[in-house]
C-alpha cells in the first residue's frame, strides 16, 4: 500500500508531516529520515485505531485486502 504524505519544515527546526487521506494523522522528526520512520508508525497506529472502532456481528466476515 502506498499513501501520500506531505512533509513540511517546522518553524522550530526539523520537520512535521501529515497524511491528507487519514484525517488527524500527523507526526514530526528532527530529520527527513526520522520523520519518514515516524510516518510509518503514525499510519499504522491510525489504521489500527480505525479498524478497532467498528463492532463486528457474529454474522459478519472479516477480510484483509492488500493494495
UniProtKB/TrEMBL annotation:
InterPro entries: HicB-like, TA_system_antitoxin, TTHA1013/TTHA0281-like. It comes from the Bacteria. Residues 5-57 form the HicB-like antitoxin of toxin-antitoxin system domain. SUPFAM superfamilies: TTHA1013/TTHA0281-like. This is Type II toxin-antitoxin system HicB family antitoxin. It comes from Pelatocladus maniniholoensis HA4357-MV3.
